[in-house]
Design a protein that fits this description.
Elements (H helix, E strand, L loop, with lengths): L2 E3 L6 E3 L1 E4 L20 H13 L4 E3 L8 H12 L8 E6 L14 H15 L4 E6 L8 H14 L2 E7 L3 H14 L4 E7 L11 H8 L2 E5 L31 H18 L3 H10 L6 E4 L4 H8 L8 H10 L8 H8 L12
Parallel strand pairs: 3-4, 3-10, 4-5, 5-6, 6-7, 7-8, 8-9, 9-10
Antiparallel strand pairs: 1-2
Length: 347
């Protein structure tokens, strides 16, 4: 297990992050029933196996199973006797947590209510990484940032991050934080997979320039890249009831076919290759994996031991390449010969 610096901070996190969206009883999880199903005993086992493999990073959110995921994670840490300093806990706020009009979003009021509730459910005195789970088109960004800065000043939150934001919105938030001296976003949690590389267009260049960490969610595209799906089997399993995230299936099947061949050569699974591909990207800080069973978890953890060679990466890059899109193709054309080649004036 490798450990990467979390953005510009002095904190290091494992390249694999245990995602706990599956924590919660399926029949009691409401909107999350298609994903949840892990009871407390199973949650303890999944966390214990992850910690034993070197994972020190765990991600959850207040909306997962209506708070049950946070509560079960907190209880698992207590049940296993995990020292608080030995685990980095990340959680999120933004989604609907009640029937009232203010029980959602990124307003100061909702942030203050949410952090108190999350701390209680997690049974901890602080959250290591507190993330805005989505875009709030109503609340001014500076209101959100000021509230988060107050949480950092109070010691309730160590670092703040964002999830599912557009590049321009992240850049605007970073500018506001710099001007006003607020705690800035240190990470973004975003969807990225071999079948969905859209992040590389605008967000990845921003992350690299601003030195933000990237936490990848759904690296297997909601299980579509697990190896059990194909053109004639896409109606089975979780995808049959929760077809998310959206994926260009034709491109996905081409990726799966290529990964199947590479997996056979390495004596591993398609899912392991898909995860190893994402882990090999230099802009990725940590990949969030979720599981319902220990064997699924072990298959995902195996990706840390798989070293794809240059030929593998070239093949996978080629089959999953993004179609050209403006202004990217114009930027590429106009910057050709300027960077990173040294300047050489015409004689």
């Amino acid at each position: 297990m490798r450990y990467n610096q979390l953005g510009r901070t002095g904190m290091f996190v494992s390249e694999i992050c245990l995602g706990t969206m599956t924590f919660g009883q399926a029949g009691e999880a409401g909107h999350w029933s298609a994903i949840a199903g892990v009871d407390q005993d199973n949650a303890d086992q999944l966390l214990q196996r992850s910690l034993a493999a070197g994972v020190n990073f765990v991600d959850t959110a207040n909306v997962y199973s209506d708070g049950a995921s946070e509560r079960m994670l907190g209880r698992s840490l207590k049940n296993l006797g995990v020292a608080r300093k030995d685990v980095v806990i990340a959680t999120k706020f933004h989604g609907v947590m009640g029937a009232g009009p203010n029980d959602r979003g990124a307003s100061r009021g909702h942030i203050m209510d949410s952090v108190e509730a999350s701390l209680e459910r997690l049974e901890t005195g602080h959250i290591d990484l507190y993330q805005v789970h989505g875009t709030d088109p109503v609340t001014p960004i500076d209101e959100t940032l000021r509230a988060l800065d107050d949480l950092v000043a109070k010691g309730l939150v160590r670092y703040v991050g964002v999830s599912n934001w557009q590049a321009w919105r992240i850049a605007k938030a970073l500018g506001i934080s710099e001007r006003r001296g607020y705690a800035r976003f240190e990470t973004t949690q975003s969807y990225y997979s071999i079948a969905g590389r859209d992040l590389e267009r605008e967000i990845v260049p921003l992350l690299q320039d601003e030195k933000l960490g990237l936490m990848v969610w759904s690296p297997l595209a909601g299980g579509l890249l697990s190896g059990k799906y194909g053109p004639n089997t896409e109606g089975e399993g979780r995808r049959a009831s929760f077809d998310f995230p959206p994926v260009d299936k034709e491109r996905a099947w081409a990726c799966v076919a290529e990964m199947r061949d590479i997996a056979a050569r390495h004596g591993t699974s398609v899912a392991t290759v898909a995860l190893a591909y994402v882990l090999a990207k230099p802009f990725v800080t940590s990949v969030i994996i979720g599981a319902n069973r220990l064997d699924q978890l072990d298959q995902n953890l195996a990706a840390t031991d798989l070293e794809l060679d240059e030929e593998d990466i070239v093949r996978l890059d080629k089959v999953s390449a993004l179609p050209h899109e403006y202004p990217g193709w114009m930027v590429e054309r106009q910057t050709a010969g300027r960077w990173p080649k040294p300047f050489a004036p015409k004689s």
